[in-house]
Amino acid sequence: MKCPGQxxxxxxxxxxxxxxxxxxxxxxxxxxxxxxxxxKACGHRMLNPNMDFGxxxxxxxxxxxxxxxxxxLLAQKxxxxxxxxxxxxxxxxxRDFKRIGHAGRVARxxxxxxxxxxxxxxxxxxxxxxxxxxxxxxxEKHPGESARDHEEEGVPVxxxxxxxxxxxxxxxxxxxxxxxxxxxxxxxxxxxxxCVYDADLIANLEEKxxxxxxxxxxxxxxxxxxxxxxxxxxxxxxVLMGGQA
Length: 245
Prior knowledge:
- The chain has helices spanning 62-66, 71-93, 97-117, 121-130, 134-141, 147-164, 169-180, 191-211, 216-226, 230-241, and strands at residues 16-20, 27-31, 36-38, 45-47.
- By secondary structure, the chain is mainly alpha-helical.
- The relative contact order is 0.09.
């Protein structure tokens, strides 16, 4: 038996309608259950303007469902990715609230720096949330673990999380590359790495400063010598020195 909702004999007025092609303005006829239609005038494949594509913004099978995703949905998909990465990070660390709190602070600082430096926030925030996911595996496999150990162990964990969320391969590669050396900068780094590095440094200095307070001169020297971005330096002074310039 066919579902009455999908059987055109039971459709209500408005189930078949016309919409303007956003590329050429030609009139295109839609049935309510069409996801996309080709414009016969210009060949543009347009989305059904009356259909809710909210699920396509995060579903890993969206491309199989509606074909090649249009740019507006791809942008929304990556914008929502950071929220889903944050959830997966918390799920991964379970009750390790110290590491969840650290990752959350790094992501919060990275978002402020990334916006001011005009970096790719999908890459920056995904790397910020996942930068330390290798610690758990590293502690099990390498007693007395080093920063290099948890950088290397973090890559397969982060890749698994991002692949499970349906992230683009290019984004996964960028995020994993940052995680793989986030304590060991290369001679040349892109702005996404610099934003994550500065944000992690602020969070680490903040935690160290609470346990063993640094003098104002020590903080200023560290900020001047170790930070990459102007936005990172300004935020570090705000967080660590109460906004002193």
